[in-house]
Amino acid sequence: MTQDVQERIDNLIKQNKIMVFMKGTKLMPQCGFSNNVVQILNTLGVPFETINVLDDNEIRQGIKEYSNWPTIPQVYINGEFIGGSDIMIEMYQKGELQQLVEVALAS
Fold first, then answer.
1. Tens digit of pLDDT for each residue in 19-70?
2. Where are the transmembrane segments (predicted)?
C-alpha cells in the first residue's frame, strides 16, 4: 500500500465517527454482507459514511492491508476497526454495538 492510500484511509477513518468500507453505497449495497452492515446501522438510526471499494481499487486492496483483515465490508467506529458483517451482527444481537455507537457519537 502506498503512503498516499494509507493517508486517504487514515483521513476517512479520522473524519467520520462511523466509517464503512463496502461494496456499493449505503443506498445501493452491492453484496449481502455490505447490505447487512447498512441495515444494522440504519436500524440503530445513526449517521455513518461509506466508501464504495468497487470504485477505487487502491482503497479496496489498501484497506485489507490497513486492517490486516481480508474481507469487505470493514467497519470503523471512532477510529477503531470493529470488523465485518458477522462481527457487526453478533455485536448488535448482544447489545454491544448500540453502546459502542452511543459512546462514539457522544465523544
1. 999 999 999 999 999 999 999 999 999 999 999 999 999 999 999 999 999 9
2. none
Question: Grid coordinates in use for 103?
Answer: 459512546
pLDDT at residue 107 is higher than 90: no
- Amino acid identity of residue 90, one-letter, is E
> What single-letter amino acid sits at 36?
N
Q: How far is CA 8 from CA 5, 27, 58, 76, 98, in A?
A: 5, 23, 10, 14, 28
> Which residue ranges form the domains of the chain, and what is each CATH number?
3-106 (3.40.30.10)
CA nearest neighbour of 38 among 24, 59, 58: 24
